[in-house]
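Quick sanity check, Right-handed parallel beta-helix repeat-containing protein:
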Amino acid sequence: MTAMPKLRHLMALFVLSVPAPPALATPPGCPSDAIRLDPGTDLRAAAAQAEEGAAFCITAGTHRLQSIVPRRGQRFHGEPGAILNGARPVRAWRRAGRHWVAEGQDQQGQRKFPERCVDTMPRCSHPETVFLDDVPLRHVASLRHLVPGTFFLDYATRRLHLADDPTGRRVEASVAPYAFRGGASDVTIANLVIEKYSSPIQAGAVGHDIPSRRWLVQGNEIRLNHGIGLVIGTESRALGNRLLRNGNMGAGCVGNDILFEGNEIAGNGHFSGVDVLWEGGGAKCALTRGLVVRGNHLHGNHGMGFWTDIDNIGTLYEGNLVEDNSMGGLSHEISYAAVIRDNRFRGNGYGFARWLWGGAIQIQNSQDVQVHGNRIEVTGPGNGITLIQQDRGEGAHGPYLTRNNIVRDNRIVLQRAGQPGASGLIADHDIPLMQRGNNVFDGNQYFAADPAALHWGWVDRFLDWNTFRRASGLERNGRLQRLPR
């Protein structure tokens, strides 16, 4: 009975030791000289006809099936209640046996890549989605697989089939491939709701498949798009957005000096059916230099919270709150120098905690990464701070080796006995290289419900605390304490 106050005190210290995310200025409303664009206006034509640098005020209401190609420096501001919706309503239904059918559904978006789908969702690379009262339905491959919660689009007959009765309900079918196409530089997009676009896999409802320079994307809610919500490029800033429930990922980026700050990136990667071990979840960036991911709330994504994969260098992850992402929290893969500091993690990696996968912080075949000041709470079958080496070849800045990484002064709380909750280093390629790779774990504090458990990975096996320290020579100044019951 006396241990509970101690546990509360411990967890209070654990939470309060992490800096609060920085406050962001509210994006300004429509400029006084902005061109007003009411629902029903052709926004693409308006942007094409206006000068470079023109400002637009997209007025309150639903603007359907708009795909805008901005010119350089154009600014698009939304009034409160302004919605860009890439879907059209489907209203004319007839009963056909146990199903309902709508004719004339000729939407067929771009399939950019070979299918990399989970077995139960074989049409993941078909970007068409159907929404029933704002809930995305699962796209099945034939009528015989049609059950409640799914739809079948017969491209040959242009018929849409539902198992759910659509009577009195709102049914929408995504059609438009993007809200804003990339290409022009210095574009601003602010205060809009952007939803239900038929964006292909690896393409965004905002930015499409062109990561563009110096975009400011601020204060938007980008949701329920099939592929990615937002794609940005060099010197771009994503500030204070809500990137929610997009089918493939919330965001992606390529380029130099990109900033993600103060965004909520949540619930992404669940409905498109893409295998998230290939790509999916909160956000993924590649080929970046100087990427900063600061003060974001990354939670409930199917996949990683944020993933830097392929030749990223000079990355900073700082002050993020990372919770309940199925494959792990932050992953730095086949990349180079990074700093991961002062972030808070809870409940990540529950969907893939095999070996040392599913880490709150996961360093894969990457080097020169500093990991410090992070607070990690492992609440279930996830792992802590994991360094992994495999045979991945060579990249733009040298071989993809797990070396020269420093993991210091972090706190890891392992709440449940009998769960993995492992940290450490492990390899399935060139074990001697991992052992002499100058990787450091030291000064970290561990609080374990079962201190005798095998919570530490070393090269090719899992060890208890004392055996790990002897075998590896690591954590000379680390501490392990029993978590109060």
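Posting the structure with no commentary besides this: Residues 214 and 236 are 4 Å apart (CA to CA).
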